[in-house]
Design brief:
Strand 3 and strand 4 form a beta hairpin. The chain has a single domain, classed as Roll (Nuclear Transport Factor 2, Chain: A), CATH 3.10.450. The protein is mainly beta. The protein is 10% helix and 63% strand. Strands 1-2-3-4 form a 4-stranded antiparallel beta sheet. The N and C termini lie far apart (37 Å).
Amino acid sequence: MEAVETVTFEIGDTVVEGPHVALMMSAHIRGRGSGAEVVGRSPHVWTLRDGKAARFQLFQTWEEALEAVGRSE
């Protein structure tokens, strides 16, 4: 992490289905020396239990994340 100046996260599309939350997460990373910015997007599914995260899954596509929570686009 020495080469990284900042990392920020942004939540995009969000779908709630029962205890499951599908969301599109973007990570914005800026290099310390170069100032170059890299943005990575990844679909997540979080399962909540008693208001706390009980499970986390990372998917390749938004469609896969929606399918995991019982929805389709």
